[in-house]
Write a structure and sequence with these properties.
The protein is mainly α. It contains 9 helices and no strands. The protein starts with a helix and ends in a 6-residue tail after the last helix.
Length: 174
């Protein structure tokens, strides 16, 4: 039944029926958890958060994402799924102007992806977003350190538009 609820949630979302999409995606995630398919449950919750965000319910989306990362099964989830959840959560928190918690999530993510040999560009992106978010939180010293980290990461994994946006966004240089 879990995949059926997920399909119904997607269909409702495409039809613009947010309430029905939320109901079906929530049910799908719960059923995936009951079946022990925690990666699929987390993935479905990511989709649920996307539906909520598009419906202007950012706080609800953040709550869903926090539940994925706070659950005891979070440590068993696919590393890249956790990274995607953390990225979406950090951006959601920033949208809610919760800059310091957002920066903390970006920092955790940057530390994770820095170890991935095949994702240098992702490290550059997360380091740049960390720097900007720390500047928004008025944590200037930390923002300067993150700025330098982003520039160094850019040398390995170029993301010119992201680095330019960071540099133009008022993030201080150390």
């Amino acid at each position: 039944m879990a995949p059926t609820h997920a399909l119904l949630g997607h269909a409702a979302s495409h039809l613009g029926d947010t309430n029905r999409a939320v109901r079906h995606l929530s049910e799908a995630a719960a059923r995936f958890d009951q079946n022990g398919d925690h990666d699929e449950a987390a993935s479905t919750r990511l989709q649920l958060a996307d539906v909520l965000t598009r419906a202007g319910q950012q706080a609800d989306a953040v709550a869903v994402l926090e539940s994925v990362l706070s659950d005891e099964t979070a440590s068993t989830l696919d590393e890249r799924l956790v990274a995607q959840t953390r990225l979406t959560l950090a951006r959601g928190l920033r949208e809610l102007e919760e800059f310091l918690p957002a920066a903390e999530e970006f920092l955790r993510l940057a530390d994770t992806v820095a170890a991935w040999e095949d994702e240098h560009e992702l490290h550059t992106m997360t380091a740049a977003e960390t720097a900007v978010t720390l500047a928004m939180a008025e944590r200037w010293d930390a923002a300067g350190s993150a700025y330098e980290r982003a520039v160094a990461a850019h040398a390995k994994g170029p993301r010119p538009s992201q680095i330019t946006q960071m540099m133009c966004g008022g993030c201080p240089r150390s």
